[in-house]
Amino acid sequence: MLLMLQNIQQNQNLYNRRWEALIQVMSARSRNQFIKEKGLLEPFASLPKLFPGHPWVQPPHVEGVNIDVGGYQVGDNPPPGLVPANQDEFGVMKGLDVVDLRSRLRAIFWFYHDVRLSIPTNAMAWRCIQGLKSLEMFLLHP
Questions:
Q1: Which UniProt keywords apply (predicted)?
Q2: Cα–Cα distance between 112 and 141 in angstroms, integer?
Q3: Domains of the chain, residue spans
Q4: Which residue in 2, 29, 34, 63 is deepest, having the highest Cβ count within 10 Å?
Q5: Is the pTM value of this prediction over 0.70?
Q6: pLDDT for 67-108, tens place per residue?
Q7: What confidence score (pLDDT) does residue 104 get?
């Protein structure tokens, strides 16, 4: 009986974290749309993780980004430098070579565990550019 109550409590905590994260995501996307539409140089609002777990154990290596191998919980924000902070950083990402861009996009997918951000392990340049567009849509729209 105690184990069943603990499981119920854990599930309730996960649902509560997910609802709180969802509210933060909607607010952040609204702010990000405003920033993009007005052409402001302000940083985008960070979107917290909505889905539990990660698609695989080890995150891809991203130069200059410290990704916690232990994983992230629902409601956690991405590590600094992983997701483009503003429109200028999207431009910088477009200029990365395919290997670095693919690695960064796969690390972003690893963090969020959201199928909309998935790209193949061997994605070529055109697929990485599509992945970058998907990331921008993810940051701006539900």
A1: Elongation factor, Protein biosynthesis
A2: 15
A3: 2-140
A4: 29
A5: yes
A6: 987 889 999 999 999 999 998 999 999 999 999 999 999 999
A7: 97
**Alpha-carbon 17 to chain mean position:** 16
Tallying the residues shown for the chain, one arrives at 142
Task: Please name the helix (run of DSSP H) or strand (run of DSSP E) that holds residue 130, with its range, or none.
Answer: helix 125-140
Structure tokens at 47: 């979107």
The C-alpha angle 64, 67, 96, rounded to 5 degrees, equals 40
DSSP count for the chain of H helices, then E strands: 4, 0
pLDDT, one tens digit per residue, over 105-135 is: 999 999 999 999 999 999 999 999 999 999 9
Write phi, then psi, for 11 (nearest 5 degrees). Answer: -65, -40
Whether 132 contacts 105, CB under 8 Å = yes
Please name which of 100, 99, 90 lies closest in space to residue 64, comparing C-alpha atoms. Answer: 100
Q: How far apart are CA 102 and CA 99, in angstroms?
A: 5
Q: Which of 121, 103, 109 is nearest to 54 (CA)?
A: 109
